[in-house]
């Protein structure tokens, strides 16, 4: 009986000592005391609404996936992610302060990821969305978008450039016509003048043809024949 009593005393003392150690750790980091149950999440992803106490954890886990997105909008919580075991505020792989969306790549389908929702600033009700569907756009959609943008830019440039080119062509034609009319207007009418000349040779009068007179200047510096 004395041996049993001694054994029970040792066990009780050990449990008390362990409790004291845990409580001391909780003063340093309250999350170390929060083990709690782990709620599994479907490998297809799901939206979860729950509540968490101030300075406490609420845990979830997901496995058999290649990647996942996690998003939330509650600014009173922070989220810790860890592969293989539940995270704490000092032991984690990813830390998320909200609101935000985070993509997490998974190296193996057998990996189990744990999500710890921590009431950082207050006890609160939260909603987290865990998605295993690729949220990025497929390559062919990106190609269509880029092609459409390039085509739109070409159309805009053409709609601006073509009228300008047409206007320049019309203006050039008008300028050429105006220049030609101005040149023609500067020319004075050609007037032919005839002069009669009489020469006496051997006591005989001879009528000479009138000389050609050049009286109107040309643009080239010469004269028009009149």
Apparent shape: rod-shaped
Query: How many alpha or pi helices?
Result: 2
Spatial order of strands in the largest sheet? 1-3-8-5-6
Rg on CA atoms, Å: 50 Å
Largest sheet: 5 strands, mixed
Strand content: 25-35%
How would you classify the helix and strand content by structural class?
Answer: alpha+beta
The proportion of residues forming helix, as a percent range, comes to 25-40%
Beta strands, count: 13
First-last Cα distance? 156 Å
Q: Low-confidence spans: pLDDT under 50, at least 5 residues?
A: 22-33
Order of helices and strands: HEEEEEEEEEHEEEE
Mean pLDDT: 74
Structural account:
By secondary structure, this protein is α+β, with helices and mostly antiparallel strands. Residues 22-33 have low confidence and may be disordered. The protein has two helices and 13 strands.
Topology:
Layout: H1 2-28, E1 38-40, E2 45-52, E3 57-63, E4 67-72, E5 78-83, E6 94-97, E7 100-105, E8 112-118, E9 124-131, H2 139-186, E10 197-201, E11 204-208, E12 214-217, E13 223-225
Parallel strand pairs: 1-3
Antiparallel strand pairs: 2-9, 3-8, 4-7, 4-9, 5-6, 5-8, 10-11, 12-13
């Amino acid at each position: 009986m004395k041996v049993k009593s001694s054994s029970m005393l040792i066990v009780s003392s050990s449990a008390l000592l362990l409790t004291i150690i845990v409580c001391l750790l909780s003063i340093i980091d309250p999350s170390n005391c929060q083990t709690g149950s782990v709620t599994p999440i479907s490998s297809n992803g799901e939206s979860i609404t729950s509540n968490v106490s101030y300075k406490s954890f609420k845990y979830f886990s997901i496995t058999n996936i290649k990647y996942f997105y996690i998003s939330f909008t509650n600014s009173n919580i922070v989220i810790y992610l860890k592969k293989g075991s539940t995270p704490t505020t000092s032991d984690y792989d990813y830390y998320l302060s909200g609101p935000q969306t985070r993509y997490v790549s998974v190296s193996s389908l057998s990996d189990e990821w744990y999500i710890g929702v921590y009431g950082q600033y207050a006890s609160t009700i939260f909603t987290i969305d865990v998605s295993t569907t690729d949220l990025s756009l497929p390559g062919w959609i990106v190609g269509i978008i880029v092609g459409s943008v390039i085509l739109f830019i070409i159309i805009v440039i053409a709609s601006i450039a073509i009228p300008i080119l047409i206007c320049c062509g019309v203006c050039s034609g008008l300028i050429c016509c105006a220049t030609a009319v101005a040149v023609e207007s500067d020319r004075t009418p050609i007037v032919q003048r005839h002069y009669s000349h009489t020469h006496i040779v051997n006591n005989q009068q001879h009528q000479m043809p009138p000389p050609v007179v050049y009286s109107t200047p040309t643009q080239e510096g010469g004269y028009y024949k009149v």
